Amino acid sequence: MTATAAWGATAPDSGLNPLTIDRRALRDEDVAIDIAYCGVCHSDLHVARNDWGRSNYPFVPGHEIVGTVREVGAGVTRFKVGDRVAIGTVVDSCRRCDACLDHEENYCREGVTGTYNAKDRIDGTPTYGGYSAAIVVAEPYVLKVPDALDMAAAAPLLCAGITTYSPLRNWNVGPGSNVGVIGLGGLGHMGVKFAKALGAEVTMITTSPAKGEDARLLGADHVLVSTDKAAMTAANRSFDFLLDTIPVQHDVTPYLMLLDRKGTLCLVGMIDKMPTFHTGLLLGGQKAVSGSGVGGIAQTQEMLDFCADKGIVAEIEMIRMDEINHAWERMEKADVKYRFVIDMASL
Amino acid sequence: MTATAAWGATAPDSGLNPLTIDRRALRDEDVAIDIAYCGVCHSDLHVARNDWGRSNYPFVPGHEIVGTVREVGAGVTRFKVGDRVAIGTVVDSCRRCDACLDHEENYCREGVTGTYNAKDRIDGTPTYGGYSAAIVVAEPYVLKVPDALDMAAAAPLLCAGITTYSPLRNWNVGPGSNVGVIGLGGLGHMGVKFAKALGAEVTMITTSPAKGEDARLLGADHVLVSTDKAAMTAANRSFDFLLDTIPVQHDVTPYLMLLDRKGTLCLVGMIDKMPTFHTGLLLGGQKAVSGSGVGGIAQTQEMLDFCADKGIVAEIEMIRMDEINHAWERMEKADVKYRFVIDMASL
Prior knowledge:
The structure is a homodimer.
Chain A: E1 30-39, H1 42-48, E2 65-72, E3 84-87, E4 90-92, H2 98-101, E5 113-114, E6 134-138, E7 143-144, H3 151-154, H4 160-170, E8 178-182, H5 186-197, E9 201-206, H6 209-218, E10 222-225, H7 229-234, E11 239-244, H8 253-256, E12 259-267, H9 280-283, E13 288-291, H10 297-310, E14 316-319, H11 324-332, E15 339-343
Parallel strand pairs in A: 8-9, 8-11, 9-10, 11-12, 12-13, 14-15
Antiparallel strand pairs in A: 1-2, 1-6, 1-15, 2-3, 3-7, 4-5
Helix pairs in contact in A: 4-5
Protein name (chains A, B): Putative zinc-type alcohol dehydrogenase-like protein
InterPro entries (chains A, B): ADH-like_C (IPR013149), ADH-like_N (IPR013154), ADH_Zn_CS (IPR002328), CAD-like (IPR047109), D-isomer_DH_CS1 (IPR029752), ER (IPR020843), GroES-like_sf (IPR011032), NAD(P)-bd_dom_sf (IPR036291)
GO molecular function (chains A, B): alcohol dehydrogenase (NADP+) activity; zinc ion binding
């Protein structure tokens, strides 16, 4: 394992050769996957830069993985060679805590094994992600990709998709819900598609009128430009659920004012210190600020099946592996509609 | 109306003579009530001091009112002279918005008419509260006091009671719920009683071991002393619902760490700027910070009936009207178990 790779320039000593990286020998429950596509998530860059102080180098990013089964272990029953499969952000968990037994492995009481930058629970070796030719994952954490889905455009569903689908489902968004999606990026564009497909009335809330028009093309019924004070006042106390996808620290006060009685603002992008807000905004109507992080394996499969049923995939821009550093730069400037996906044939 | 009253020393120009205060002539829907007892709420002092910047002087505090019907208007159907009745924090609302139609008048879209320091919706005269001999209130905002309840000890149910009952009910606390009540005062002691009566497992969370023991007498199953780091760590991620009754600004981080997956911390005491916390505490398990403010008339009646059924009243210390200033001083030091109630016979 050497530490020079295409993305090494951005992330010092962060890479391994994605073609020659060691993957573990198949255990009975393992599925070996040839990776076809991998989505580019903002988390990949955060870890490359050690923004969260938990990075272990060298590492291989990528947790929006789609490919085909190359080989299965002796105990594997649900998959066979050639099946279209996917891997998200979680490749193992304790499998016995209440969260795991409730199919919310993402909230495992003992902590999940992340698809990269974690340690295998059995032998302690590092986990390496999907910017790579192949990956080996235990069967319970492998997802089926329905035939109806384009493989490349399905890749971002594994993180951006489930991160937005899970809170919309768990807060019972559906017909009659007045939903606002705050921020139009990788997560936000999926939030609009899902909220609409679930039957809600959907408003894109954005600083940019142009993004608002883009959101209409994705299915948003309305656009609310957050810098327009009159429009924000008119929308006061009108939303049942706000999906806040803004990935940087921001004041939630203007959005809390949009919540209707018993409404919830759900954070899925801001992993940071919460700026202050007045608690009266919550007390005056039993309102809540919540958060959500990806989703369990069963719900991720439900989401993929829902996408197949509704004809939903991510909007993507395909890149070659050697374009990743430029893609990361553009992602930081939100210069992508709406998710980069790496074509692993370019490795 | 003159401006000298017993509590005037604490609240400059805040009083009216509670014996001679003008009450409006009965409208068809009105109920005139001889006040027997009035609970002393921390809000009374906040308004007396203009802590919230919205006080109109002179004013008469008091919104935990119990008494008997003296006279009814021509259109009143549910009450007759001599009935035991109660008035809480709300004496009118728009009666036509979605909140009012949903029996959540407390969250009226046009704003409620408070029991004191507000203006009557019809003639614009000031509303005066329960530190007084009598009050006139429209029938839809008058509550029945079940025979089983002691009238004096029922008074605090009208604010401290419903403020804690409403969130416990609306967040579906019941058998199987692991509930923590944070802070043991007027609200907290009702929170413990209600959570227990609803069937939950109840923990008093307090800085004071002595208060913990007091809470056991009220029905708490467990005590968690929040300054005991080992105990707090052991309780990490174990509560479904936390009722936070602390009435002053405080850091919620130690409490958010106690929330289990999908758990909610509900603020009912802190009306202030929220100190920062890390959003990861919400994202890691779809958790929420919420708030709640009193309750609707129907739910308040439900609460009174529940109290009668379960044998619940507030723990009170009875005072005379001329002791109110000293009582306010003691209340500020939390030197009361757990609610002062004014005996209006002392007027």
